From TrEMBL:
<feature type="transmembrane region" description="Helical">
    <location>
        <begin position="1063"/>
        <end position="1083"/>
    </location>
</feature>
<keyword id="KW-0812">Transmembrane</keyword>
<feature type="transmembrane region" description="Helical">
    <location>
        <begin position="593"/>
        <end position="611"/>
    </location>
</feature>
<feature type="transmembrane region" description="Helical">
    <location>
        <begin position="699"/>
        <end position="722"/>
    </location>
</feature>
<dbReference type="Pfam" id="PF11915">
    <property type="entry name" value="DUF3433"/>
</dbReference>
<feature type="transmembrane region" description="Helical">
    <location>
        <begin position="112"/>
        <end position="131"/>
    </location>
</feature>
<keyword id="KW-0472">Membrane</keyword>
<feature type="transmembrane region" description="Helical">
    <location>
        <begin position="62"/>
        <end position="83"/>
    </location>
</feature>
<keyword id="KW-1133">Transmembrane helix</keyword>
<dbReference type="InterPro" id="IPR021840">
    <property type="entry name" value="DUF3433"/>
</dbReference>
<protein>
    <submittedName>
        <fullName>Uncharacterized protein</fullName>
    </submittedName>
</protein>
Amino acid sequence: MSSWETTALRLHGNVTADSTPSSLDKSLPLLPKRNAKARATTGVKEVSPEAKGYKTKGWKPLSLSTPILLAVIALTILLAVAVETLAQRSATQGGLALSPTLEDIPGYAKFSYLYVPTIIAVLYSLIWSWIDLDVKRMQPWFELSKDTGATGEGSLFLDYQYEFVALVPFKAAKSKHWPSFFAGTAMVVVFWALTPLQSAVLGTDVVSQTKAANIYTRSRLLPLSQQTPLFNPQILNTAYAIGWLNQSLPRFTTSQYALLPFYVNDTITPSQINSNWTAVTTRLSTELDCWPAEVGQDEGAPNSTFYFLNGQGCKGSMNFGATSKVSMQYIGFYGSPYSDYALNSPKCPPTKNSTHQFLAAWVKTTPVEGGLQPSYNFTAFYCQPQYYKQRVLATVLSSTFEPRFEALSPREILPTSEFNSTAFEFLLANGVEENIVVRDFPFNRVVEQTPRLNITNLTHPVSNMIGFAMAGHSIPLDDYSSFNTFTKALNDAHQYVFSAAISSLLMNETEGFNRTAMVEFHLTGVVSMDSSNDKDLAEEFQYDRFRLLYDHQAKSAKIAVEDIPFTTNESKEDTASKGYYEPVKPLVLRKGIGLLFIAVLIGAIVVLSYFKQQESILNGLHRPSENFEVLQLLENYIPTVFATLVEPLWVLLTRLLCVLQPFRDLWAGKAEPSHSIDATYTSIPPQLVFWRAIKSKHFILALVCSMAFLANLLAVGMGSLFNEAPATVLYPTTMRPAYAARFDNSSVYDLDLFLSQNLISTTQYSDHLYIASANFSSGTALPPWVTKDYYFQRHNFTSSNEGNPADTFSLEARGFGVNANCSAVPRFQIPVFKTAEEFPGGESLNKSFCRRQVFINNAARDIRENMANRTQGLSSAQFCHTLISGSGYTPCDKTLTLGWARTANAENINGTMHASMLICYPVFETAMFNVTIDRSGNVLSYNKTTKVEGELNYDESRDHTDRIFETYNRQWNTFNTLWQNDTVARDWFNYLIVVLNGSRSAIDPEQPVPNPEALRPIANEIYRRLYPIFLSLNEHLFVSNEKETPITVFRATKEIRIFMENASFIITMTVLALNTVVAMIFYSRSVAFVLPRQASRTLSFGRYVGLDGSVHLGIESDPHVVHSMQNATIRRFS
């Protein structure tokens, strides 16, 4: 028994009441198996006024003492302040423990938000459990201590501590027992609001951060005098990569405008994350002002020649062939040998506006039946570019430097003193600068776009800017007959070429600029639930009023009973006539409830095990909602509520068992007082009875008590059980190969003709070289299905595939590649050749002729004797050529020779020359791969699944691959070996060596002949990387007239999934399993139901005067037999 019970027992041991037999006596029901009635009549003793008004200092439990309550209040306030502080800090900083990604959140932070709140809530609930228990147990004494006393129903028969926690506040409020109401309400709040909400108060999310930063570098346009040389084909090469190859635009630019760049000190953000830089800068842009041209024909002019008037004194003219179909032209004011037309003429004199204007025309020729002259359908117009600058607040992403802006002022004209628009427009119209300067090979000629335009069937030649206008568009040619469509295409082309040009015209600004910027970035972090039964006794005594008083004369406490007369003539049923009673059976101790409880526990184990299995199979559980609050409710609040529902049940079981255990021992017989009537289990919260139970060898009670304690651990485990993290999820879908994995015979043999038939500005096919150049120099993405090592067999989706644009797909695909297999020829002195050497070509050339020395001699002779360009003095020369430069079957062309030479006197053809060489004998490679691609076919990763083979699985495979190597090698040929005394790369191969090697030493005449062993890895890489690009641009080489079988591929998508924390899962499953085992043990053992009413009630048993005249306390004899005696009368009770 508790200390307060002991004290109360001592007090009410001295409470007296005179008793005489009377018909008004209250009957006390009989004990089990009692045959005779025992009556006790309690007379009513009037309470004196002195006793009514006397006040004395009473006793109360420690938990209800002022220091403890003040400490709990202070702790509550501190917890509230801590939560509010975290909330304010989270709101101010955007979160707590901010990290680049979920995986980067520190371990202490994960533990703090997953476990600590629930642990604190559980410990806090233990304190409230102690207070709540004592308040509920003291409630009857509070009622008895009132001046007017209390009814038996409202005092002696109260047992709130054995009621289900959630129901106590309602019952207490109905009876106006406010201490129990407030304590019970606090427990309900702690159990089902505070504890669950503590587990759900913290979660993870992506938050935005903004901090001030310093700009350490700004850019501005170069002075006008320095801009002119920079308007060269390198800008158009960049534009070609942007328009046709999807290369990213330069930093701080979009396809519509360019910003003057600024760079901030970005050390304030973690290196792993992207940030947004915001600062004031200048936006540069261009727009076309276009108007229709007046079209006509001069008298006497050819029928296919037309003039175009701009309405401002300019008259341009063009001639259209009678056999052409659709022609599109872009004619600038100034002309050059690289353009077919120009406006500059006596009929279009230079003016302030005309020099900046161009003529664009779309012409469709339609034959007229029976006539010699076709009809012409025109869409022609003049345009004049306008250039603007504007002060803006710009924001750029630190990883891509892609900008967006807010205007701070109206745009204004960009003056010609700041931007050389004339040089820019000359470049657009002619493809080269006005004053050509020798540059690296790709930038020394007009960009060849004709192969890209082949599918359009445009009449050749095609103007340079027409190619840029059509880049990236797949609309029919006839749509360009629309004035709006054609002008928009040209306007778009002008804008993205302008953006590419601005990026090459910048210099750092060193003074007089605003150094203030803002850095915004996103971090992931923690962001801010009786021998009669009770019914009989209640009916007997519910209308009697009881008072706890202090007898001043006797110096002891006493209970006074005031009888209240009946208001009706009905007499109460005499319960003493029953003779026997039905022992009380608390609901929670019944086996039916036990079975239900065990079923719930097993169900929870099964459900959580199923969730864990699904998490493993699905790589995480699906999120049921995207709403943050709903997810917190489902992932944290509800699991914690379940755990806090389990705890009150174990607490109630422990409380009941704490009361019943002494009687159980008494029922068993031979019980020691320390283990029965002197047991003090009810003086402390049920969770802390464990050690007392172990000491008394009440092991079942100890187990039940431990479950009540472990229920708090269950709340911790379930409150942190579900957590979110990004996961890659796989979904099956189907794709079909676009062609067979073998080469088409006719396509292979006609490849030379196919590549050369549409070339205009060059004599070599260069598309794969442009792509490689953009990839090597700017990191432009390779074409779909291409990597640096292999080209993979393209597959198409069999149906529209929905999903995230960032989804990836994994499939089995064949890869095609090459090993350049280059061998080094060390430095040697080139001999003077005395006789000419002839190389038979075509079918007559035998493979046995293709010997190593033949290749060396061929290259050496060309280097020494080529007179195409002879410099003077110290010079260098580069050689890149096949043995035979013709088309058709030339087996020696499968080998490519690279050479580098030096001489001190280039003008002396017989002088001393030294050279080194690489001779490449390519070997075809193919294998099956597990390939991962994005939705566009760009290869993200690949793993070889079969061994590499040298040919495909059909008879003509080796012959086909050799013929493709011959054509591929001929695209490297430099037709004239040029001696040079500078460091300009004059062929594609050496330019790519310069880009990859980062050095021009291989072509520098002042450097010694390069070591071929040092160059071999770079040469192998260049040759190997361009071959897959070459194949991807010529898919017609593969057999495509067969319908391939669809294959199953797996779509991988990034989703936020719900995962079960391993530590929390182990804790939860362990506690639930222990709960289940203990519940089975507890309910499988029979509980001795022997008491007529709950021993938890006040005055349920106590001292009495027996027939022997002695004072007795409860049951003190064994066996428990009350001797049957007639007319026995109890004289006193206490």
